Amino acid sequence: MINKKSIWFLTLFSLILVLSIYYITMPSELLLSTKENYNNQSEKEETTEEEETQVTVNESDLLTSLRVEANDEMVQEMDELKAVLTSKDATSEEKNDAFERMKELNSVRGKEETLEKKIKDEFKLDSFVKIDGDQIRVVVNTEELDKKTANNIMRSVQSNFDEKMYISVKYQK
Length: 173
Fold this sequence. Notes:
It is built from five helices and three strands, in the order H-H-H-H-E-E-H-E.
């Protein structure tokens, strides 16, 4: 009987084999021309005068980096929980707790996306929302955020929850 490990091994081995054969049979002119283009390009860059380069961070870049960071944290925690679920040594109670935590993480991520969409629809502002227990952090992409708008965002976010949440609104340029 073939088990899952054997199938995965055969699949990955065949993929590596196909890629190796493709690389070996690839025309050498293609490799040489790519290498020459790279060398010519680097020589041209060295001969040009040095120009000052300025790094500018767009507003959406900040929100995107916050989303990526939050997503990485969630993926890491999900991987740890999956390891508990697939572990042979874990008890059924540990597996149940890990499964419940995974469901909770998915639910929280859904709420965060819903709140971001709600802020976008109601206030026409790009935002990032992070829920951590009873604390909600909202980062809004705008030049200036007045107290009235921040208060309205807090009320709008709180209207989605039955229990009292601690909401902070921060703006980023």
